[in-house]
Amino acid sequence: MAEAQDRTLRDVAIGKTATVRRLKGEGALKRHIMDMGITKGTSVFVRKVAPLGDPIEVTVRGYELSLRKSEAESILVG
Length: 78
Known about the structure:
single chain, alpha+beta, SH3 type barrels, six-stranded antiparallel sheet, 2 helices, 6 strands, 17% helix
C-alpha cells in the first residue's frame, strides 16, 4: 500500500527541491548514487530535465550533477 504513494526524484517538478528519504536497489547503481553524495536526508534541487526525460540535471550539496532516468527512479523523495 505504501508503494503506491512512493515518489521518486523523477516525479519532482523542475525548479523544486526534494529531500531524499531512501535509495531503492542494490549493487553498482546504489553505490554510484551514493558516490555522488546523494544519501538519506540530502536536499536535491531539480534544475533541468531533457525533453525525453534523460538526463535530469540536479544540484546536490552545491554540485551540479546529471542523473539518468534509471538513477532518478531509484531515489525516493519526501
